[in-house]
Amino acid sequence: MLRTHTCNDLTKTNIWETVTLSGWVSNRRDHWGIIFIDLRDRYGLTQVVFDPADDKASWETADSFRSEYVIQATGKVRNRPEGQENPKMHTGEIEVIISEVKLLSKSKTPPFELDEHAEQAGEDVRLKYRYLDMRRKKIADYMQFRSQMTTYTRNWFVERDFVDVQTPILANSSPEWARDFLVPSRLHPGHFYALPQAPQQFKQLLMVGWVDKYFQIAPCFRDEDPRADRHAGDFYQIDCEMSFVEQADVFDVVESFLLDITKNLSDKEVLNETDGKDVIREWGQFFTLTHEEAMEKYGSDKPDLRYGLAMVDVADIFARSSNEIFSSIASDQNANRIKALKVPGGDKVFSKTQMKGFEDYVRKFGAKGLGYFQMKEDGLKGPLNKFFSEADLQEIVDRVELVEWDVVFFGAGEAKLVQNYMGKFRNYLADLMNLADNSKISFCWITDFPIFEQDEDTGKIDFEHNPFSMPQGGVADFEKDGQDLLDVKGWQYDLSCNGYEILSGAIRNHDIASLVKAFEKVGRSADEVKQKFGAMYEAFQYGVPPHGWFAIGMDRLMMIYLNEENIRDIYAFPKSGKAQDMMMNSPIMVEDDQLDELSLKVEIDEE
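RE: above sequence
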C-alpha cells in the first residue's frame, strides 16, 4: 500500500498513529537542521518532518528533495508545537515525524509557480503544461465541481424517467447554422461525416421511436471563433427532448432542474424579483420577456436582470423638440428609436467630462452621438435643455421616473442600431458601477422569437432561429408572403442568466408538410429537405408525436456558478484563445500518405 491516508485526512484524532502518505513536495523549509515539507495531493496538505535525531537515514534522503518530487513517507502523527498550529489548514494542528521515506519520482523545475502566482506565466504557457496547471487548487476544484455537476445532472434526469441515450459522433451535417467539422471517409472517397453541432436529428428520431423523455450530456462540435464565453471547437450541453409536451411543460422541467441544481451545488441566491418595474411579468419562478420586449427594454436577448437600467421610449417627446436631428428621427417611430437610459445616482458618480466621454464608447458600435440630462434639485439640466419646453422636460422626468442625482442618457437612430449600442452601454455602465451582484443568479425566459428575418443587404428572407420550430399560428403562418413572414412568431425560447444565453429550445414542428412549406418560403425546395434531412422526412410519415426540446449550455452555467469570466478554465484540457491545443500541439499538418489514403489533397491559399 502506497498510502494509508490522503494529505487532508489527519487531525488530532490520529495522534501517535503510524501512517503512510504519498504526494508531491509542495514546499520545503529547513530550520536548525530539521527539514519541514508540505506534502500535497489533490485533497490537501500535510506537514511532514524529517529530524536526524529521530531517523537520520530519512533525513539524508529528504535533503535531496526538491519542489514537485513525488515521495512516500511513513511516520507517527503528533501535535504541532504550541504556537505553530495553522488554523487555515484542515491538518494544521498536527504533523508527521517521518521514520521511513522513498523517492517515487523526481521532477524538473516547473516552468511556472503552482500557486496564486501561476497566472502571471500567461495562458499559453499554462495550457502547454496543463497537467501541471491541474495541480493548482483552483483548477483541481473546477474539475471536481464539473464531476459533481455531471453526476447530479444524470441522477436528476434518470430519477424523472428520462433515458440517457448516446447519439453518434460521426454524423451528418446538422442544421445549427455554424460551420461543421468535417471528417473524410476512407471507405467512401469524396464523402464526409460531420461531427454533430448538436444531436438534433437523432433526438427527434428518438421521439418517433417511443423514447418520449431523452437526455444526454452531449458533446457538440462547431467551427466557430472562440471567445470568453465560447470554447473553441467542442462544448457540452445538457440536451433534452420530450414527447407530448407544450411550452409550459418544458419550462416546468427546466425551472425545477435549475432551481434544484443551483440550490445543491451553488451558494447563489435565485432572484425572483428585480427593482419592480424592469420585468414585464413572470412565468413560474423565472422572469419572462418576449424577444421584442427584451430588445426594447435592454437592447439584448440575454439581459442581465441582477440590476435595473431598463430603457424607456421617449421618441414621442423628442418629436416635439426644436432639434431637427431628433425630430427627424422621431418622425418614423416604426423604423427608428429614441431610448432613455436612467442611471440612479449617476450624477454623484460621473463627472461631466466622463459623461461626454461615454459618447466615444457608443460610437464604437455605430452611434452618432449620445445625449444626457442631469437631474438637479430644480429639474433637468444639460446641453439638451434648450431644445425642449418646460412641459416636455417635465414629461421626461415623469416617464423615466427621475429623482435628484439621477443621470439619463439618450440614444437615437435606426431601431436595431440603437438597441445594440444602448444595450452594450447599459452593460458597460453596470460594470463601471459594479452593479452586478455575484451572489445572485437571475434566470429569464426569452420567448416568442421570430421564425424569419430579412437580410438588410439583399432583402432575402431566411430563418432567424431554428427552422424546425412550430409557428404559433400553426401551418397557416407559412401561407404568408413577404413582409408578413417577418411577423411569424415561433414556440421558440432561450433562457438568459446573468447576461449569458444558457439555454435554447422550442416546440418542434412535427408536421412534415408544414416543414417543407417553411423551407420553401426561404427558397429551399422539398427535394433539398428530403436530401439534407432524409431520415426525419421519412420517419415523420410513420406517426410522430408532438415534441419539444431544450439544451442547457453546461459549461456556461458552470462559469456562472464559479464566477469565472473565461470559459477555458472550466475544461480539463481546453483549447487556447486561438483554438489551439498547446499541450498536444494540434491542429497539425499530416503526412501526404495519410491524405492519399483519404483521397484528399490540400491547397493552402497563401493570402
